[in-house]
Design goal:
Blueprint: H1 2-26, H2 28-36, H3 42-46, H4 50-82
Length: 105
């Protein structure tokens, strides 16, 4: 469940940065038009004008950078928290088990 939440959170961060950067570089209307189709593939980007291609490349780079930084920060926090877990020695002998008598019917 934690991995699903992490992937969802980082995916939301990526999408937010992608949309924000495209909106800053192209304007909200053009960014909305590009992202509304849901298929911003490499082939579709190659067919766009050069200025729009640069904006898309910058937006993807911004999204990946933000995602990588957030993942690194989460990893560092998780590592630091792992140091706070107290170690407990394992049991040296097995736990006693109750043996039931064999009955023959």
């Amino acid at each position: 469940m934690g991995a699903s939440l992490g992937a969802a959170g980082l995916g939301a961060l990526y999408t937010n940065r992608l949309q924000a950067t495209l909106g800053d570089r192209l304007g909200a209307a053009e960014a909305g038009r590009l992202l509304s189709g849901g298929e911003l593939t490499a082939g579709a980007v190659r067919k766009l004008p050069a200025a729009t291609q640069d904006a898309v490349h910058a937006a993807v780079t911004s999204g990946v950078h933000a995602t990588a930084m957030a993942a690194a920060a989460l990893g560092a926090v998780a590592f630091a928290l792992a140091w706070l877990i107290r170690g407990r020695p394992l049991r040296e002998s097995p736990a006693p088990t109750q043996v039931l008598e064999e009955t023959h019917v």
